[in-house]
Amino acid sequence: MWWITETVAGVITLSCKEAMQHHGISLSMEGIVNLQLSSKSVGVFEAFYNSVKPIQLISNNIEVAKAGKIPGGKTEIPFEFPLNTKGNKVLYETYHGVFVNIQYTLRCDLKRSLLAKDLSRNCEFMVHCQPQKAKVVPTPVKFSITPESLQNTREKSLLPRFLIRGHLDATSCVISQPLTGEVVVEKSEVPVKSIELQLVRVETCGCAEGYARDATEIQNIQIAEGDVCHGLPIPIYMVFPRLFTCPTLETTNFKVEFEINIVIVLHDDHLITENFPLKLCRV
């Protein structure tokens, strides 16, 4: 199910071999942002413990059927839920992360007599944010990697000589379209072992007193293996996985951002990484 008309509609299907008495059928809808601190941040700021409490975005409950009897066989009960937020809360897009999790669920409860156990089923539904009207104009980003351009390296003189060029077609990306570009190994003293694309989520939780910022890998795609031909353009192509990415999000208590790493592994196990922050949006 998707948030398009700002209602969630569907059918509750009940299957039973023979007629069954019940004490009412109810349906509840809940949208929650769960925040979690990484182990390195626990105990650093006391204020964190208040800021990482679950944020309830939406909570509704309706009675689908009053107490009565369900006939044997298959029974379908249609329902429709308005997506009304609590107060001035905003609905964020469904997102499954490590330290930030935005989830929307439906729960159906069928109450039975004291001697019979109540029946309950949960179902997650997906929420898309409203697409922005402004068009995203792709701006290519060129890069050139040499031993001198590397940031976190002390002994640059000991590194093998190499020159790697390329470009990304855009770093402001439409989430429903792939990330594209190309990379070219112009020269390298040491043979190339592998070239990989690493998509990273950067999740920030906290408050005014301080923030915990954690970067974790979403997916890693190998785009070349072995000592590739020098001067040959290698295409960059990565699809953003639906549940594990969302439009770049910044709120008072948390942020969800994304980065892409181009990783070149040489045969002597030197690791060369070029990092690019990404801004994801939906149009």
Automatic annotation (TrEMBL):
Pfam families associated with the record: Vps26
Domain of life: Eukaryota
Alphabetical list of InterPro entries matching this protein: Arrestin-like_C, Vps26-related
Family affiliation: Belongs to the VPS26 family.
Protein name per the record: Vacuolar protein sorting-associated protein 26C
Species annotation: Ataeniobius toweri
Gene field: VPS26C
